[in-house]
């Protein structure tokens, strides 16, 4: 089996260094990036087999990278979160796998090799979720609506959601109304219950 060529994308240099030192002997690290722009540039230039992609980065995060890259790269998302809501957009955009940063080095190498070979690799806790085509109800929400939903489900008040997302309380109210309408729910209590059943 040929050694997969890998680009590491994460906005924390120490984390990139850690990944490089732990798996660099098993795969060929051909580049790394700490921003969305750097990531797009190095992926287009190096054309790796697999991109290890941080989900949450400034400037649009992993989703922005996937959407902007025009070469045929396979993306393996590497996140601190295992919340299904974080998986949806990346999988829809074409990511081939999703694992968390708590993964052991041997398991990460195995995941990289499998993605390079064309397999889809997801955490066991997310596999069923992905196979269910990402919950059509949840998938019907926009990215912003899902962000608002997650915070409301955690007990945030409208003004706290507004501060967290840097939008107005009126905009939060608008998003909550849209979510309730799309999910055919009546109030915040039902919304919180709906979200908790989906581990949001």
Give an account of the 3D structure.
This protein is of the alpha/beta class and 200 residues long. The protein folds into two domains: 5-131, 3-Layer(aba) Sandwich (Rossmann fold); 137-197, Arc Repressor Mutant, subunit A, CATH 1.10.10.10. The protein contains eleven helices and six strands. The protein has helices at 13-23, 36-46, 61-68, 84-93, 105-116, 124-131, 136-139, 143-153, 158-165, 169-183, 188-197, and strands spanning 5-9, 28-33, 50-54, 74-79, 97-100, 121-122. The chain has a six-stranded parallel beta sheet, sandwiched between helices. α1 (13-23) links the parallel β1 and β2. The longest helix has 15 residues, at 169-183.
Radius of gyration: 18 Å
Number of helices: 11
Beta percentage is: 5-15%
Shape: elongated
What's the average pLDDT?
87
> Order of strands in the sheet with the most strands?
2-1-3-4-5-6
Query: How does CATH name the architecture of the largest domain?
Result: 3-Layer(aba) Sandwich
* Percentage of residues assigned to helices: 40-55%
The major β-sheet equals:
6 strands, parallel
Order of helices and strands: EHEHEHEHEHEHHHHHH
Number of strands: 6
Measured between the Cα atoms of the first and last residue, the distance is 39 Å
CATH topology of the largest domain: Rossmann fold
Structural class: alpha/beta
How many independent structural domains? 2
CATH superfamily of the largest domain: Response regulator
Q: Residue ranges: pLDDT <50 for 5 or more in a row?
A: none
CATH class of the largest domain: Alpha Beta
Quickly list its features.
alpha/beta, Rossmann fold, Arc Repressor Mutant, subunit A, 2 domains, six-stranded parallel β-sheet
């Amino acid at each position: 089996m040929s050694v997969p060529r890998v680009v590491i994308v994460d906005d924390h240099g120490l984390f990139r260094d850690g990944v490089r030192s732990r798996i660099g002997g098993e795969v060929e690290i051909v580049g790394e990036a700490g921003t969305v722009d750097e990531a797009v540039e190095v992926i287009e230039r190096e054309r790796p087999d697999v991109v290890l992609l941080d989900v949450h980065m400034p400037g649009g995060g992993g989703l922005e990278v996937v959407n902007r890259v025009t070469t045929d790269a396979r993306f393996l998302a590497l996140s601190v979160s295992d919340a299904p809501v974080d998986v949806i957009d990346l999988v829809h955009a074409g990511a081939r796998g999703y694992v968390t940063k708590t993964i052991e080095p041997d398991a990460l190498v195995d995941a990289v090799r499998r993605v390079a070979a064309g397999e889809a690799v997801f955490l066991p806790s997310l596999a069923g979720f992905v196979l269910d085509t990402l919950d059509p109800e949840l998938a019907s929400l926009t990215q912003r609506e899902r962000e608002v939903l997650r915070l409301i489900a955690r007990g945030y008040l409208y003004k706290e959601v507004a501060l967290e997302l840097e939008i107005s309380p009126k905009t939060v109210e608008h998003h909550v109304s849209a979510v309730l309408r799309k999910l055919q729910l009546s109030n915040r209590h039902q919304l919180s219950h709906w979200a908790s059943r989906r581990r949001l």
